[in-house]
Write a structure and sequence with these properties.
Layout: H1 19-26, E1 30-34, E2 40-41, E3 56-60, E4 64-73, E5 86-93, E6 96-101, E7 116-123, E8 129-135
Antiparallel strand pairs: 1-2, 1-3, 4-5, 4-7, 5-6, 7-8
The protein binds zinc ion.
Length: about 140
């Protein structure tokens, strides 16, 4: 099972980081880490942009992070038009920055930089898998 199950709109079905989707569904959010130089990547990368190495290992993203920044989106790309408005956010999980949407129903008035957040796997109605931020 590959990337075709991730998110609402996808342009590729298989990548060298397919395991991301299985990890997300069963073990939580994962990043990749370069075995040569230690650089971490989220979204996961199969090759290191720092040292060009390709020996990557999976790294479980910490369970709890801190909200760094957020904004409300009123216009959305293809596949997300029916969801607006929604809150987009960046959170820091032990120096791994994760970009995503906040759970439906939360507005920017409920959020503040530095608040504790978690990543929750999200099963979409069509069987797709994604994730969202929730307060920790
Ligand atoms: Zn590297």
């Amino acid at each position: 099972m590959g990337f075709e199950r991730f998110g609402r709109v996808n342009f590729i079905s298989q990548t060298k980081t397919d395991a991301f989707v299985d990890y997300l569904e069963n073990k939580g959010l994962h990043a990749t880490k370069c075995s040569a130089c230690g650089q971490t990547f989220f979204p996961p990368r199969a090759d290191c942009s720092s040292c060009l190495g390709c020996d990557m290992t999976w790294l479980e993203v910490d369970d709890q992070g801190r909200l760094v920044s957020f904004t409300r989106a009123y216009f959305a790309p293809t596949g997300f038009e029916g969801d607006v408005p929604y809150v987009l956010a960046v959170a820091d999980f032990n120096s791994i920055k994760v970009f995503g949407r906040f759970k439906t129903g939360f507005s920017e008035d409920d959020l503040y930089p530095g608040m504790d957040v978690k990543v929750k796997p999200l099963s979409l109605p069509d069987g797709q898998i994604s994730y969202e931020f929730v307060p920790a």
